[in-house]
Design goal:
This protein is α/β, with parallel strands linked by helices. The chain folds into two domains: 5-121, Rossmann fold (3-Layer(aba) Sandwich); 123-280 and 309-334, Dihydrodipicolinate Reductase, domain 2 (2-Layer Sandwich), CATH 3.30.360.10. The protein has helices at 13-25, 38-44, 56-62, 75-84, 99-112, 126-136, 164-167, 169-173, 176-186, 281-295, 303-322; strands at residues 5-9, 28-32, 51-52, 65-68, 88-92, 116-119, 143-153, 189-200, 206-216, 221-229, 236-243, 246-251, 326-327. The longest helix is centred in the C-terminal third of the chain and has 20 residues, at 303-322.
Length: 335
């Protein structure tokens, strides 16, 4: 159980997801949102001690850690306010829309001596953790070719997702997960090329597809495909990493979880134990962040990772806009 008072900002899908994780971890949570929906979220979890806060200022005054689950355009200003108040910060990806804003946020928290944690939850999914460990152990040798896909239904539960100026579109809001993960496996990229296609069906359903290629300083090449599909599109992710000594791959649709379908009555000490095969990835990432705050040790993901992810995504947007490959070592990549 965490001896931590968390100030949660937002009341949408991600705020609800983070709230459930914090409750699982035993943290005390106060929640606030500008639109007032936090009162309903707090009421739904009143039995677990969740309280509605009257303002952001209240959270900054009373909480140890601020968890930002608001639209992307609001992230930087909240991070700056939290840093000024001396509060640690968890921020849903991306840290900001532009590399300059992300770096400003990172610099402010560094000066204040507080942690800034970008919530890149994919690093905490068990299959991605397993891949990272395997690559680090040399299972594929030197990574050479990496493929990542990510698809789900278009996020139409809030209108700001469809406004690229507010969300960054599919390259920033969705594919940034895989950009960050590829960098963690194959190292910093030096060049990115990307394309985006968007359409709308006769019934008004929006679709967006993105493709990108990263060239890493190591010489490795990463390929990405992202899809925000029609309503009902099943969530699916895949990866394939080929190196000098082997190949590792995963498809979420091909994975069958272990289940005990039936078990005859047996003595207590001979039964198959009922244990969770993995921890909720959101709880795993928030546990990692919380332990960094409480112990001072380095978390798995830090502010620099968040800034670099924003930088890659911004360069991908610039590539899609101009039709040119963008040199990430040049000044144009930060525009």
């Amino acid at each position: 159980m965490l001896d931590l008072h968390v100030g949660l900002l937002g009341a949408g899908v991600m705020a609800q997801t983070h709230l459930e994780a914090w409750i699982t971890l035993g943290a005390r949570v106060s929640v606030y949102s500008d639109d007032g929906r936090h009162t309903h979220l707090a009421a739904d979890h009143a039995g677990q001690g969740v309280k509605a806060a009257p303002s952001l200022a209240h959270l900054l005054e009373h909480c140890t850690l601020i968890d930002i689950c608001t639209p992307t355009a609001s992230h930087k200003e909240i991070i700056l306010a939290a840093a000024a108040a001396g509060r640690h910060v968890v921020c849903e990806k991306p840290l900001a829309m532009t590399p300059e804003d992300a770096q400003e946020a990172a610099d402010a928290t560094a000066r204040a001596g507080v942690h800034l944690f970008p919530a890149h939850v994919v690093r905490y999914f068990p299959e991605y953790e397993a891949l990272h460990r395997a690559v680090e152990a040399g299972a594929v040798g030197e990574p050479a070719i990496l493929h990542f896909t990510r698809m789900t239904a278009y996020p139409d539960w809030s209108p700001w997702f469809s406004d690229t100026a507010l969300s960054g579109g599919i390259l920033t809001d969705q594919m940034i997960h895989d950009f960050d993960y590829a960098r963690s496996v194959a190292g910093d990229p030096v060049r990115v090329y990307a394309q985006v296609r968007e359409s709308e069906s006769d019934d008004g359903a929006r679709i967006a597809a993105g493709t990108a290629v990263l060239t890493h300083a190591s010489g490795a090449i990463s390929y990405f495909h992202g899809l925000w599909g029609q309503p009902g599109t099943a969530f699916r992710t895949t990866f394939r990493v080929a190196g000098s000594d082997g190949v590792l791959e995963h498809d979420s649709h091909a994975t069958t979880a272990f289940r005990v379908l039936a078990q005859q009555p047996v003595p207590e000490d001979e039964r198959i134990p009922q244990v969770a095969l993995f921890e909720n990835p959101y709880a795993a990432e928030l546990r990692d962040f919380a332990h960094a705050v409480l112990t001072g040790r380095a978390p798995r993901v830090d502010a620099h990772d968040g800034v670099m992810a924003v930088r890659i995504a911004a360069a991908a947007r610039e590539s899609a806009r101009t039709g040119r490959a963008i040199d990430l070592t040049a000044e144009e990549a930060t525009r």
